[in-house]
Amino acid sequence: MNGYSVFCVSDHTGVTVESVAKSVLAQFPKLEFSLITLPFVDTAEKARSAAARIAATPHPLVFSTLTDPQLRAVIGEAGVPPFDIFDLVAPAVAAALGQPATPSGGRTHGMAPDYEARIDAVNFALNLDDGLNPERLDQADLILVGVSRVGKTPTALYLALQYGLRAANYPLTPDDLERGDLPACLTAHLPRLRGLTLSAERLAALRQARYPDSRYASLAQCRSELDAAETFFKRHAVPVVDTTRMSVEEIAAHLRHS
Fold this sequence. Notes:
The chain is an alpha/beta fold and 258 residues long. It folds into two domains: 4-97, Rossmann fold (3-Layer(aba) Sandwich), CATH 3.40.50; 115-256, 3-Layer(aba) Sandwich (Rossmann fold). 45% of the residues lie in helices and 15% in strands. It has eleven helices and eight strands. Strands 2-1-3-4 form a four-stranded parallel sheet, sandwiched between helices. α5 packs antiparallel against α6 and α9 (200-210) crosses α10. The longest helix is centred in the last third of the chain and has 17 residues, at 219-235. The protein is elongated, with a radius of gyration of 23 Å.
């Protein structure tokens, strides 16, 4: 066996079922999995097509967030019992609440009440990316600070899109580090500062991929910059997240609750 083909079937974007499947499958590190996402399976025709594809695939596993029981039944005709999130969880929740669930596709996404806030936060993160428009830092919920390539930009955007937080990011440049302290525009907003760091080896690898064999990517330069940034963070009691072994989602979750 060369591994399992894992189908993530959804009547909407597939983001939720993908996240669940990845979390569960991570508990089986000795096995190999290949994820195949089938989003917007919201009609019987699409469900039959998905079932045919699943049935024709060797060693399939099926995770599903199909809310329509009839569509779940069609997927079941592939001969592979699906791990359907609603089938597994909703009955227990309904028993606890004392009332049945009312299936409706796509309720976890779409035009949620915070939609406008999240779009505004994304625009804010883009406008204050990489130290742009520092005069607007007073409008930020969080200000991410760190040396180049520690993950500030993707984290700021994730905080905006997922949580609607206005996250600015400000890079500590070699000039800042040589001056011996945080820039004045940052010290004016210390309660909202959050430092990002990572191991020197990981930083060197990231920089090497972008600028091979440069001084910027050298291990010595990375260590020097990270040490200087750490000194600043300690001096001003800035909370720090080490991103070395974290995904963007994990970094954002830590920052949201810090």
